[in-house]
Write a sequence for this structure.
């Protein structure tokens, strides 16, 4: 996981916002009270995560289309507001990790926006060479 963050990982959020049967890798969705700006600033070379600039995106684009979450509930939740999103990656040995940060983020019941940042992590392990 991303070493500098205090994360609370939630299997329900993982089921909502990631593909039910990923073709490759393993997903995990966690949350942290840290601001997205702080995570991106601290994620640089010392922690090995390479983040793109933070963007403001509509919630459907921020959260993607892979998970089975209720898109209309999320649209109502955000209203005219956009989500701050940063995407990044890092290589750790034979593991490649793709990270998406979303702030603010929906709670698991899709009834309120939470402060802090949702971390969507995809881990892909390279198979051992024969």
């Amino acid at each position: 996981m991303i070493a500098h963050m205090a994360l609370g990982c939630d299997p329900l959020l993982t089921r909502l916002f990631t593909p039910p049967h990923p073709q490759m890798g393993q997903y995990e969705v966690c949350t942290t009270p840290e601001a997205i700006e702080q995570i991106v600033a601290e994620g640089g070379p010392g922690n090995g995560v390479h983040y793109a600039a933070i963007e403001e995106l509509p919630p459907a684009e921020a959260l993607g289309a892979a998970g089975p979450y209720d898109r209309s509930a999320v649209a109502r939740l955000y209203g005219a507001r956009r989500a701050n999103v940063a995407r990044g990656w890092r290589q750790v040995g034979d593991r490649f990790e793709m990270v998406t940060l979303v702030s603010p983020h929906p709670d698991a019941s899709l009834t309120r926006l939470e402060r802090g940042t949702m971390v969507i992590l995809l881990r892909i392990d390279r198979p051992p060479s024969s």
User: Anything to note?
Assistant: Residues 8-114 form one domain. The CA atoms of residues 54 and 86 lie 5 Å apart. The first helix runs from residue 11 to 17. The chain has one domain: 8-114.
